[in-house]
Design brief:
Blueprint: H1 2-33, H2 38-54, H3 58-70, H4 80-96, H5 99-115, H6 119-136, H7 139-155, H8 159-176, H9 181-198, H10 201-211, H11 218-234, H12 238-254, H13 258-274, H14 278-295, H15 298-314, H16 318-365, H17 369-456, H18 458-463, H19 465-485, H20 492-510, E1 513-519, H21 529-550, E2 554-561, E3 566-573, H22 587-598, E4 602-606, H23 608-611, E5 614-621
Parallel strand pairs: 1-2
Antiparallel strand pairs: 2-3, 3-5, 4-5
Helix pairs in contact: 1-2, 2-3, 2-16, 3-4, 4-5, 5-6, 5-7, 6-7, 7-8, 7-9, 8-9, 9-10, 9-11, 10-11, 11-12, 11-13, 12-13, 13-14, 13-15, 15-16, 16-17, 17-19, 19-20, 19-21, 20-21, 21-22
């Protein structure tokens, strides 16, 4: 009896050892191929996923799913399948209450969401990661969280918040790891990139210089030099930009960083062209393409095509810019098709792989007929389950494919409908332009006639001054409509000049005194066309109402820029005012509110001193066109 018991224990130990070794070998194989040979890595982790699930080893099962999710750095291929892998890994580690792996999954998922433009979701997962890091006092993880928060806010063009996150990152480093120069360089780099995005290039260069005071290794400095060169290029200091990129190139060449060298060559090609040195630009573009051909990285090729589009735009070759743009999107589409084909191929091979795994386990682990019979029984159950999973997976794929085709057809129909609307709109715009030109010509004729009367018959001219006032208002109104119809964008300075013209004409023809105060920092920035035209109409409506109905003699106008995208406006007069609860009774006031709704402004009316005088407060958001 004891002999049989010892024999059974020996068999069980051998079985557990073989299982553990097989699991380790799959994990090691997958990790060795991670990023470098994505197809082989994916196959290893899929085998490990199926195998771990069959052994009820949920921790290894979760890790296999996680590594499948992070295996591919190609963000163009991110879609429903990749998102499911991340969410599946999150659910597993939540179930296991494994905070460490859960935080890794959150952090990587947030990074991918940032790259595909899902900034709000990315920030949500980063906040979840931060809670875990603070709970576990994992400062290295907290460093990564603040770094990624800053990068995500940069990607979302919220540069002020990006700088705040970088400052917190820097403060945390100095508190807990003051000698961590690499992390401090990351914080400085994030500030430099944020200031560069805001157009504050001198501040960006200041933080780039601070990076080079940290005595970092040459290997790390290569990437920061390339970023510093980009800032010089934005300042149109192309000689300094080229010099800095060349320094980065030498470091990358020394350390055999081929991917970074391709980027360096492309940037040198771009900046030499901007410096009007086309011959040298061509040399570096060719060098980039030769090295890229040797590497054979399709993701790097898409970046190369994208930069080529920018290059041909800069030198004014529209035909080649379009050609490279088409190539860029063709490569992206081919990437998606390759992923779909590989997915189908893996489904077809899955059954054979699982069968081989089971056969190997049977030969190694079972030695007696009774155990073999039991194993065959388990094998049939496992095979049935695998077939069910396979059929279910294929069904999901078919459903996904059908849904995608249905969506494509719907998009095509919407596109055709939009094109038809655009045709009608273009006809209407043409007619509107012709009508405006006709009215302008008639108004110019009236102007010429009144000027002639002013010189030849001044007495008669005095009698038609009210007509002249109407003419001036009409000219201004038509000018504003002309800007809108022809899609012309006004700068903040031009917008202020229009208000001054309105002030001058009001004082000249109505006897009202108009006080105008403006504080605009970004006068060269262009305003959204709809916002500009509607606000100028609001000014006209308010002044017209005050002149006709208020019984006053003075109007105050204030325009003040509060932030990069926010402007505060206040209009007031010294007339009889109105009852705030009866504001809807006035047709002119309703027109003002209608225009403010169209541009999504915030406003409120007030009538002070027992309804003596009227004031309109307006807050405008997202006023300027993004550069």
């Amino acid at each position: 009896m004891i002999k049989y018991l010892l024999f059974f224990l020996l068999i069980a130990n051998f079985k557990a050892y073989a299982v553990d070794e097989y699991s380790k070998s799959l994990m090691q194989k997958g990790l060795s191929d991670l990023y470098t040979n994505t197809e082989a890595a994916e196959q290893s982790f899929k085998k490990l996923e199926v195998y771990a699930l069959s052994r009820f080893d949920f921790n290894t099962f979760g890790q296999a799913v996680f590594y499948q999710a992070i295996n591919d750095e190609d963000y163009f291929s991110f879609g429903a399948d990749k998102e499911k892998l991340y969410r599946k890994a999150i659910d597993i580690f939540k179930f296991l209450d494994d905070k460490e792996w859960l935080s890794y999954t959150y952090l990587n998922f947030a990074g991918v969401l940032r790259e595909v433009g899902e900034y709000i979701k990315s920030l949500e997962y980063l906040q979840l990661t931060r809670r875990i890091a603070e709970e576990r006092k994992d400062y290295n993880l907290l460093f990564s969280v603040y770094n990624n928060l800053s990068l995500t806010y940069q990607a979302a063009s919220n540069y002020n918040q990006a700088i705040i996150m970088a400052n917190r990152y820097e403060k945390l480093i100095k508190e807990v790891q003051s000698d961590n120069r690499e992390a401090l360089a990351e914080a400085f780099h994030n500030k430099a990139e944020a200031y560069s995005g805001m157009g504050l290039l001198d501040s960006a260069l200041y933080y780039h210089k601070k990076i080079f005071t940290l005595s970092l290794s040459e290997y790390i400095l290569g990437e920061y030099l390339a970023k510093k060169g980009d800032v010089f290029a934005k300042k149109q200091m192309y000689d300094e930009a080229i010099k800095t990129i060349k320094q980065s190139l030498e470091i990358n060449r020394k350390h055999n960083r081929d991917r970074e060298m391709v980027k360096n060559y492309s940037k040198l090609g771009l900046y030499y062209a901007l410096a009007d040195s086309i011959d040298k630009s061509t040399i570096f573009w060719d060098s980039s393409y030769v090295l890229l051909s040797q590497i054979g990285d399709i993701n790097l090729l898409t970046e190369y095509k994208k930069q080529k589009v920018e290059h041909y735009k800069n030198i004014g070759d529209a035909e080649l810019a379009i050609e490279y743009s088409d190539a860029y999107y063709m490569i992206k589409d081919s990437l998606k098709n390759e992923k779909s084909a590989l997915f189908i191929e893996n489904l077809e091979e899955k059954y054979l792989e699982e069968k081989q795994i089971n056969k190997r386990l049977q030969n190694e682990l079972f030695t007696s007929k009774e155990q073999l019979a039991e194993s065959q029984k388990n094998h049939r159950l496992y095979l049935t389950g695998a077939l069910i999973i396979l059929i279910f997976t294929i069904g999901l794929f078919v459903a996904s494919f059908y849904k995608k085709e249905k969506k494509t057809f719907k998009i095509k129909a919407l596109k055709e409908k939009a094109e038809e609307k655009n045709k009608h709109l273009s006809v209407r715009l043409k007619l509107s332009r012709e009508l405006l030109e006709y009215v302008k010509s008639k108004l110019n004729g009236i102007n010429a006639f009144t000027e002639k009367l002013k010189k030849e018959k001044p007495d008669l001219y005095q009698q038609i001054i009210p007509i002249t006032s109407v003419y001036q208002d009409s000219v201004q109104s038509i000018r504003h409509k002309d800007w809108f119809i022809n899609d012309k964008s006004l700068t903040a300075l031009e917008f202020v000049d229009c208000i001054r013209d309105l002030k001058n004409s009001t004082e000249q023809f109505t006897g009202f005194k108009v006080n105008f105060r403006e504080i605009i920092a970004d006068k060269d920035k262009k305003l959204e066309p709809m916002t500009a035209i509607q606000m100028l109409s609001v000014f006209q409506e308010f002044i017209s109402n005050s002149v006709k109905h208020s019984g006053g003699n003075k109007i105050d106008i204030s325009v003040e820029q509060l932030t990069d995208s926010k402007i505060n406006i206040q209009l007031s007069d010294n007339g009889i005012g109105f009852h705030p609860e009866k504001i809807s009774a006035g047709h002119g006031l309703r027109d003002i509110e209608s225009r403010l709704r169209q541009i999504k402004a915030n406003w409120n009316w007030s009538s002070i001193q027992q309804y003596k005088g009227a004031t309109l407060h307006i807050n405008l958001h997202n006023v300027f066109i993004e550069s």
